[in-house]
């Protein structure tokens, strides 16, 4: 989404509620002539449309209580969008469980542009909307990406306006796809205006979208709405009583006597305002003749089928009475509250009869037939339950997992056999998990576990489903409990999967004993002839040995893991790549492992399997940072965070957000770093992950160091020593010491620095990895009282870092050594070290450290040469992502498909890269990134 947003102050005070405009006493706020009191809101809309005409994407979400005029506002927006391609969808309660129903309505007018959408996205979108019968295996995310791409293709020709009314009644699959596009389109002429009842939508669904709240009218505006029919004092009374609700004003005023209108008689004691507003429509519907009320009820239940299930005269009379309106495709309601009244007033038997009637007018075997038959059922009915199960399977094949879950949940209620019913509830929970609905998954699993008919195996599967959901989108601590339950009930390959996931959760919680137990369990249960089980055996066994310090044995088990994951047998098991990335992260070989697996990671992207891609990117970003590839780390961390937002992931998101904080701080973007750290802290609290606390503290300390807040560095890291002895992010003893020693030295606490440096040396085994040895040597150099000893220790640290790819820490060692040489009066030698630091920081584009090195060089009297027009201009994470893929030789369309962006957004980011870095061609860009060793990272 672009930076467009409504100007401050446009929100109008008003009570949260729900709805749109309506009829009243011959008047309706749905009539354009009655749109009053919305000048400021229309001004916001004009700004949005102007923004879109200028080629920028923009979005606006409108909320308000019933009768505030949301539908009318959207109609007015459409009339103002001259020269736009207007695409619209309306949420209908009876269609809320029909997967992609809203998206089909919205996108059908631009279906002819499907050929301009990336192949995988087009296939997924075509399958979801029924435009094609089959496609390659894909994830629901590709439907959202395809929606974005199709809207972007339409915007090449004319500006596009997307209007979604009653978003709260739109099916979840459609809402997710539309809002994904609204958030992600940037340099495309696409505008989005959505509306919903206040307080009805889950907050996370519209989080981050510019919002406009429709409040009540003031006295003057209410008087304009009511014209001269009502005296001014009465208008003021009515405005106070109704909260300025336009619909309520019209309804109430229309029921006043002539004397009451002019104030000669008091107003009635009980007016239909607020929560009683629906009584107006209850009376309207209740007064209808039976045959007309049936037509209205049928329309409320299924507007598409209703005309064939009742006489045309009944619908004509409903139109004549101002209840229904002919809308070109059938009949709709004059106002949503009339529909609600029709459903509320119908008795259970009337509702069942109406559904039975509708079922007789839809094709047998269709989803609509199954749903109507289910609603008509008076008790368990296995035939209907089976039909709903088939409907769920069909929805799942079209990537409609929320719809599949709803169908299976209803099927379970109608199933006589309690064991089969429990199986269906467990399957419904699995679909809810894939749809990303944590609350529903929890509720369904609770029902499975409470069911007397659930077998041990079914309970185990339910535990596994919720354990997976909690691990990624909820509480990791709760995930541990559910996965333990799964391990106790499952067998064979399912047990191996459950043990693997339980081991991962144990690792997140720093429960290393449980990790070892899981590894032993897999070793006993795994079928080594099954590649997937063999991979999990080697992963957990190797990790357990590495955690125990048996690195040689661990390497023997983990060494061939990448080859196994890349085997043809595991091509359709993208999760195997995640295990490879995790193992590589522990062993420090992420860069090599992902370079070899790049083709398979591209396959994961093409499939849209972002549930796997997101944690892979988070792990890869951390791994790249460890080996000094900070452009790749910045790019992948940013993408991981964006994908986590869509998925609702928590624990893995925290890791990626922390990496972003580190990258921001190293670039001198301290406000951004603080915001990222705070966000990571909230995510960690939600995930209840204990090991992440150490990593967060170390990242926060580094960010404080970059701000030169050494006292905070000390506070953060001394607290970690008090909590767990100061272990590092990877569990290394006294891993907090290098930063803490540096802070002690900077604060003049020499004794504390020397003491901690010695403790670190004592805790680090002689045969440690070179980077740990280098840290010990650097700490010794920082705390050495003797000049010669300090110089020797710095030289030893640099020699150790020469055998490790982390260019950043090597450059920081050059910086510290150069600073010491300068203070010792050895300026010529100091310049040599400081120039090495400056050159490396410049190559890494870590601008905060470039400035520090430049200042140190300046203090030696050296001239600091900078490329271009002065300080480097920082790329954003997304710009870095685009630059890396272009440097790898991808076209703009290929970059767009890989990053789930539009080609125009890629073009804009690339233009920004060219301007900031002074590149004149793609070849020059590729050459620059290749010289730094970055080409190909991040995608």
TrEMBL record:
GO terms for biological process: regulation of DNA-templated transcription. Gene3D superfamilies: Winged helix-like DNA-binding domain superfamily/Winged helix DNA-binding domain (1.10.10.10). One of its GO terms (molecular function) is DNA binding. It holds the Pfam family AAA_16. It comes from the Bacteria. Residues 1-36 are annotated as: Disordered. The keyword Protein biosynthesis does not apply. This is Helix-turn-helix transcriptional regulator.
